[in-house]
Queue: 2 jobs
Job 1
Amino acid sequence: NAGVMQNPRHLVRRRGQEARLRCSPMKGHSHVYWYRQLPEEGLKFMVYLQKENIIDESGMPKERFSAEFPKEGPSILRIQQVVRGDSAAYFCASSSGTASYNEQFFGPGTRLTVL
Amino acid sequence: GESVGLHLPTLSVQEGDNSIINCAYSNSASDYFIWYKQESGKGPQFIIDIRSNMDKRQGQRVTVLLNKTVKHLSLQIAATQPGDSAVYFCADNFNKFYFGSGTKLNVKP
């Protein structure tokens, strides 16, 4: 059973370009979470999605950031017109969501560098 | 609340010593807690969990203690090894999206 997959593992973009980060949850998991982590800092929650629905996006910046988890395919975190401050590691986690105690399984992360 | 922008507190221990990492939670409604370990360049991994009807749970070389009175959680690692060097986060089911800043454990050989 493959774990949470994220790609690409490293992404370099120039200021103003778009970044697309992909996350494939564990098999059987229908809940996806995205987090951002700056160097030497903790995880910061961004958004929580179930299939085709955004459940909680309280951690998402109001502009340039969007996320989706379509019925088929991976979850996508999209950052438009990237700026240097977007450089960070972005982690995706998934859970089964079938109980109130849902351990989150994390992917290896995508390290975004904005030049 | 979140400690965004703050650097990680660091705990340095000698190889072979025991380590104690602490975590405080804010909501008395939390009844399930998890400790995660994040090694450099990797995503966090589950270490051990505990429910609020327990005050202690043991795993392999790790023990989690829960003090509901003061809303405090600790992770004890016995005979700390270099492979234990990582950042450790706690999370609870009430604030399940909040992992805090974590504690960086440095194990000195």
Job 2
Amino acid sequence: EIVLTQSPGTLSLSPGERATLSCRASQSVSSSYLAWYQQKPGQAPRLLIYGASSRATGIPDRFSGSGSGTDFTLTISRLEPEDFAVYYCQQYGSSPVTFGQGTKLEIK
Amino acid sequence: QLQLQESGPGLVKPSETLSLTCTVSGGSISSSSYYWGWIRQPPGKGLEWIGSIYYSGSTYYNPSLKSRVTISVDTSKNQFSLKLSSVTAADTAVYYCARRGAADLDYWGQGTLVTVSS
């Protein structure tokens, strides 16, 4: 099973700042099958990025994904108030599908 | 617009079987492009993949739950279902259904909280 470790656990930033979230895999993620999700309290997760760097439909271009192999990054270029939430990475290239433990992005 | 809606009991007794159904509207569950999956999230914790099913009935389960999980599909009703047997308090969670395609989990239900308690 591929274990995904996200860092930091909590990130405190202000609107307008740049956010960089990390996801490290215990072994190489097949074909960059790595996704990022955003979850707000009481809501289902929302797909942001798939294939490590492709934005899902309707996702603003301030969200970008990068990386390959075992190291992946989600970058939010300029934080908007609605971006403060929990973010999860997920690999879906190997069985079983696994998620990281999440990074909470909070307002500073 | 595709919509998924989970339904089922919100309270299940320990050792019994949890049963949930996901109804898909705005699209066909028989599309060859997608799998349909279940994911759960214990209160205040992270996400766990349970398993998925293709419209033909082929399934894939998380090995950690495989001995207790059954996922089935009813194409005539545009629904798929989850059964989890021998539940304990550790199975208390919000259960989500979702569509899985090339972009992975792109549509989700709103989730339903299932509490295991006597």
